[in-house]
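Researcher: Structure for this, please.
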Amino acid sequence: MLGSLLTKLEEHLASREDSARRTVPYTIDAQRVFPGAQDDLATLLQLVDDATKDRPAFFNQTKRPALNQNPSQVSWTIEAGGLLPCLGEASAEYHRAAKSEELVIIVPHLNSEAQDYRSMAKILNYSGRSAVRYVLPFHQGATTDRRHETDQLVSASLGTSIAGVRQSVVEVTALADHFRGRGYRRIHLVGVSVGCCISTITAAVTGKFDTLSLLLMADDYSSVVWRGRATPHLRTELEGKISFPELQAAWDLLHPYRHASLLAAHQTPVLMITGNRDTVMPPDLAASVAAHFADSGVKLDWRRYACGHYTFGLPPFSIPALRSVMKSF
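Model: Predicted structure, token format:
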């Protein structure tokens, strides 16, 4: 009975977003990632394959922005010409805990709002830890492109999706460097949903984080788009224009499981929490990434709840999840 009620509630919460789901048209956009590249699929697949030979180099080749800090936020500017697609002013909320030597960087879910994670930041402050709530590219005005502010990070533009995730990796790394330089002894990274993908890659290619917490995780970026409850509009746009194996190859740089060996090399402790009723990040994809992590030697603590993607943020699931995150630090 309880399981049936949870499933119905999960679908109800998911369906509220259906009318707002949209994407840019299918495009290769290889030049968004590889300047000067021919804009055809074969070229993109070859360039991506070449880049997978040195994943840290791909994500670390872009110059990090200069950050400015005030008591409540950190801000920066992305200008054209730096291989980053989301141009303009961006900022991250900073919640400082007095005399804290630990900082938690929160990488949020897609289409997150300004007020999301403020309660989490306050709880972290009460525990003596400062917190930074990162803003994803194309979110909350962090772009000069006002056509589709919140959906280009995961869209049918193959190149923009790759470049957008790389921008997140660059910016989260810049935040870590900024605060490490200001005396924080330990820096923790927490990713939620698409933030798990970004956080896994960032921790893997930089080795700058003391712990990594992944809330609602899956192994394969393209599989989530192809099968997930949140992205049927994307599959509709992609299907018939690109095959699923081609999509997997095009987005190879974005698959969390493909960074498992790099993550294991840093010996970063990883907490992963997934939902057994998650239709956005299906449970078999969570099991797959857990297996890849374990096989690669990642120090993994995997916890499974009886919730879905949307009910995860509600009691009773949100409370033990946050407690587990804080115990992992």
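Researcher: Any notable elements?
Model: The chain is about 40% helix and 15% strand. The chain has one domain: 2-328.
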